[in-house]
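Students often ask why inverse folding is considered easier than folding. One informal answer: many sequences map to the same fold, so there is more than one right answer. In these notes we will look at a single instance of the problem. The structure comes first.
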């Protein structure tokens, strides 16, 4: 029997260099959109490269909840994120702030409006955009990235920039550029989730049960029942007794989460369920990622049966859509010049090199216990060095892959913080490109002054 070959050599080849830019941003989630807009507005010739066919990524999965405020109800994320919020509101794509004792004040956003507003902001800022184009490789020259390699329908091409911003969520560029990254073992990574959007839900029915049978229909301890009852749109977390009952009555439903969690959409009678969860799998492993998507499709049926059978108001619910792909909470994190720690978050530290503010609770979907680990924190500052790798001179990493510990990123990973980080990275990359210097030696006071001038909040 002939032995199967284990490796194969891909011949080197000459690539066409199709773009020369000041700044290249990889990944068009909310982080990448704000990074690209900020870079272009600060004068950089900017290209945004997205491997899928729309902008907004995780914010378009049906997940409608965004927090811009700290626990004292101060709006701590402003700047471009605030412009985004205003634009959404102007087209009926976002609510006013809704008070919440668990998540801090939040707004509910409409996923389709997110796609549109992101693209409009990109076009108006003069950013060039490539859709359906993954970044597949990074070419280095010493400690600098010389080019990134993209592979779309036109084939393999190189793109050269002065500075690069990694907004892929998975630190794809940083990793391929040889920057050190941290990655938890699969059994410690936060769960991945396929979100399900259901229509034909009687939204008010659960409220009646909360009033009439408060013990049976108990909410998560931090969630104030009166605020849920008062608001026409809300997030509901809890009903643990119903989940327990369902699991006892249906031992075959192995993957029902210990609590129910759903968010009402702007569209009437429509909610998004923040399940189904997949754990013990790493989303930057090709085969694990395939398993995540396949399991999500199957487990959706269990979740659907649970909601229809046990949660008031869902009796006639229909599955309108599942997320365009499974939502990934955690993969690689940059090992940066600075590292955001949970101690600094809990202490509310705001160091002098703060370039974005956080304040969202620590929110861990824990694979070990199948529980939500959730606690509130004060407002805190995210230092500039969390976006820089000691190993690469012309790269910034923004969004959920910044340099932070597992527990700290459970707070900094949310959308509003990601937008603020994107804005800071884009502004820094543009300033460094125009000065012909590395982002590592950028004057942080000047960066902070420009961010403030552009409306960002940094205290
Ligand atoms: C299930 C779930 C529920 C959540 N709920 C909330 C919530 O209610 N509120 C909240 O504020 N936050 C929530 N979060 C967190 C938050 O949504 C995300 O962490 C945040 O949106 C991340 O934004 P991002 O732009 O950094 O990354 P992403 O949104 O992941 O965007 C990354 C983009 O990069 C692209 N990309 C990746 N690799 C490449 C490549 N090699 N080449 C080109 N493009 C690439 C992807 O296609 C994608 O468009 C949730 C997250 C998940 C997974």
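Output (designed amino acids):
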């Amino acid at each position: 029997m002939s032995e199967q070959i284990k490796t194969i050599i891909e011949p080197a080849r000459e690539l066409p260099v199709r773009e020369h830019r000041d700044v290249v941003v990889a990944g068009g989630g909310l982080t990448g959109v704000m990074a690209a807009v900020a870079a272009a507005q600060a004068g950089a010739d900017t290209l945004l490269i997205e491997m899928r066919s729309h902008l907004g990524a995780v914010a378009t999965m049906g997940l409608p909840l965004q927090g811009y405020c700290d626990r004292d109800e101060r709006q701590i994320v402003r700047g471009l994120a605030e412009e985004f919020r205003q634009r959404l509101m102007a087209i009926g794509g976002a609510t006013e702030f809704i008070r919440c004792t668990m998540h801090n004040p939040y707004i509910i956003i409409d996923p389709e409006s997110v796609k549109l507003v992101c693209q409009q902001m990109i076009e108006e800022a003069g950013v060039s955009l490539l859709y359906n184009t993954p970044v597949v490789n990074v070419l280095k020259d010493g400690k600098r990235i010389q080019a990134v390699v993209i592979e779309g329908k036109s084939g393999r091409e190189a793109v050269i920039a002065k500075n690069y911003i990694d907004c892929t969520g998975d630190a794809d560029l940083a990793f391929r550029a040889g920057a050190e990254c941290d990655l938890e073992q699969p059994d410690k990574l936060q769960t991945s989730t396929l979100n399900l959007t259901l229509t034909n839900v009687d939204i008010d029915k659960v409220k009646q049960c909360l009033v009439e049978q408060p013990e049976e229909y108990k909410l998560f301890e931090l969630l104030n029942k009166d605020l849920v009852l008062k608001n026409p749109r809300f997030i509901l977390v809890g009903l643990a007794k119903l989940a327990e009952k369902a699991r006892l009555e249906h031992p075959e439903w192995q993957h029902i989460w210990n609590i129910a969690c759903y968010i009402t959409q702007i569209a009437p009678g429509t909610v998004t369920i923040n399940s189904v969860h997949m754990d013990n799998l790493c989303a930057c492993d090709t085969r694990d990622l395939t398993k995540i998507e396949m399991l999500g499709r199957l487990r959706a049926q269990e979740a659907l049966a649970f909601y229809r059978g046990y949660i008031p108001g869902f009796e006639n619910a229909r599955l309108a859509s599942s997320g365009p792909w499974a939502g990934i909470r955690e993969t690689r994190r940059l090992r940066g010049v600075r590292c955001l720690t949970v101690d600094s978050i809990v202490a509310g530290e705001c160091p002098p090199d703060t370039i974005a503010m956080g304040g969202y609770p620590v929110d861990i979907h824990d694979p070990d216990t199948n529980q939500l680990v959730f606690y509130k924190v004060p407002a805190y500052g995210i230092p500039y060095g969390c976006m820089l790798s000691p190993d690469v001179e012309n790269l910034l990493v923004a969004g959920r892959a910044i340099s932070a510990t597992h527990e700290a990123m459970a707070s900094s990973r949310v959308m509003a913080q990601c937008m603020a980080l994107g804005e800071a990275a884009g502004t820094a990359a543009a300033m460094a490109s125009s000065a012909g210097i590395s982002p590592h030696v950028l004057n942080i006071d000047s960066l902070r002054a420009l961010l403030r001038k552009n409306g960002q909040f940094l205290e």
